[in-house]
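Saturday, quiet lab. Running sequence design on the structure tokens for the scaffold JK sent over.
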């Protein structure tokens, strides 16, 4: 077979292109996103195939793709031999340092936005950078293309650009259920169906031959986010939706392989997933430990310092939000503009437990993790606008992008914006409108 895809777990696949093997985003065990996600399916073991892998692609630094415990567990001989592929971004040096320093990989090869990079005489790869962090990967061999769309949330303009660059992918790998939460429980079912709509749109816009649902084989494993499991899309739902649209989709179990142009028979895979999704309510839910009030106050102070360091003048646009910390039984008015964190009797805008709130304060990626993990509730739309504004500024920090003059005028940031100016202006404008409307 000249070009094929084998599912490993969640968003991890092995793309075989002739003699070349690319392992993507391995996650073999443990949790992700502040211990809020667990793997829904048992991964395909990697021990027996690592010797065949030539390249390791990491799509972005989210922990279900850049899963540090899994990467740390890989054999040293593998790390010395394999070449890691990663996108060239405004802060790729941070990831290079993590991969080569902390994790011990020997070689990292950077992929430029919308450029083909030859790996050998018969195989080349293409990387599309999306927003501040995400990226997609196309692999071409003997005139055939596999596109790993991953978490890119590609717009119509993005898919048009990708298709013009790579042609029609024979196989499209696409996320099939939600991996985030806007804070409104009554919108979960609608949001899940919207993802199916997007899968259909992506398939048509890209001119794909067949779509493989992946990158959603997880469940929400905390008491304060388990409600999200009830509305998750399943591979069966993808298959039925695509069939109604007259389009091809195929489910894979870990270890299953799909070759471009091969016969598709996913009946056993669909039955396998039907049984798994029928048992979502019985899966393990992890316990949580409250964080004390003093720790939250200290963490908030450091959080504000980080905001001011990166964004300076832009923090003046942040509005106060009132948060009910459910497991502590306390309500706080959080004002990042004035660095105030004080108890109040006012009605809350949001409800968050103390541990995920502490995680928001402790790490540059804490607010994004909260949204992905779904461990909060927004009580009215006005609160969501204020919260989204804070989340947008925090996401920029995680990508090492700042709005203060000191940060905005750095050569690395200016160079990144210039290189991607044609694609990123539309993406940034959309997010700014959402943040400040």
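Result came back. Writing it out in full:
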């Amino acid at each position: 077979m000249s070009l094929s895809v084998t599912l490993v777990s969640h968003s991890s696949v092995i793309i075989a292109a002739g003699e070349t093997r690319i392992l993507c985003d391995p996650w073999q065990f443990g949790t992700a996103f502040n211990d809020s996600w667990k793997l829904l399916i048992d991964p395909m073991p990697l021990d027996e195939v690592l010797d065949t892998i030539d390249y390791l692609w990491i799509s972005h630094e989210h922990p279900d793709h850049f899963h540090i415990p899994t990467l740390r567990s890989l054999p040293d001989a593998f790390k010395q031999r394999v070449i890691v592929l990663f996108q060239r971004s405004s802060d790729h040096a941070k990831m290079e340092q993590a991969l080569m320093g902390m994790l011990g990989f020997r070689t990292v090869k950077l992929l430029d936005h919308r450029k083909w990079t030859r790996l050998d005489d018969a195989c080349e790869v293409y990387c599309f950078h999306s927003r501040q962090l995400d990226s997609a990967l196309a692999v071409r061999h003997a005139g055939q293309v596999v596109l790993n769309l991953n978490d890119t949330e590609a717009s119509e303009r993005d898919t048009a650009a990708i298709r013009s660059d790579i042609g029609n992918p024979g196989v499209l790998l696409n996320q099939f259920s939600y991996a985030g939460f806007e804070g409104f429980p009554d919108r979960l079912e609608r949001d899940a169906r919207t993802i199916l709509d997007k899968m259909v749109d992506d398939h048509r816009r890209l001119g794909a031959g067949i779509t493989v649902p992946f990158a959603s084989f997880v469940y929400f494993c905390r008491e304060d986010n388990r409600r999200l499991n009830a509305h998750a899309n399943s591979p069966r739902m993808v298959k039925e939706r695509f069939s109604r649209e007259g389009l091809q989709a195929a489910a894979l179990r870990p270890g299953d392989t799909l070759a471009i142009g091969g016969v598709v028979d996913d009946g056993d895979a669909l039955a396998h997933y039907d049984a798994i999704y029928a048992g979502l309510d019985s899966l393990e839910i992890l316990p949580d430990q409250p964080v004390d009030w003093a720790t939250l106050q200290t963490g908030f102070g450091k959080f504000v310092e980080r905001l001011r360091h990166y964004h300076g003048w832009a923090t003046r646009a942040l509005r106060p939000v009132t948060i009910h910390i459910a497991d502590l039984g306390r309500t706080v008015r959080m004002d990042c503009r004035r660095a105030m964190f004080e108890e109040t009797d006012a009605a809350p805008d949001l409800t968050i437990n103390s541990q995920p709130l502490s995680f928001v304060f402790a790490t540059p990626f804490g607010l994004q993790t909260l949204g992905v993990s779904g461990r909060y509730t927004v009580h009215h739309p006005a609160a969501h606008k204020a919260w989204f504004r804070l989340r947008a500024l925090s996401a920029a920090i995680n990508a090492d992008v700042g709005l203060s003059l000191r940060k905005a005028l750095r050569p690395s940031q200016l160079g990144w914006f210039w290189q991607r100016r044609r694609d990123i202006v539309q993406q940034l404008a959309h997010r700014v409108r959402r943040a400040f409307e």
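Notes for JK: The chain has 14 helices and 21 strands. The two ends are 51 Å apart (CA to CA). Ask whether to fix the surface positions before the next round.
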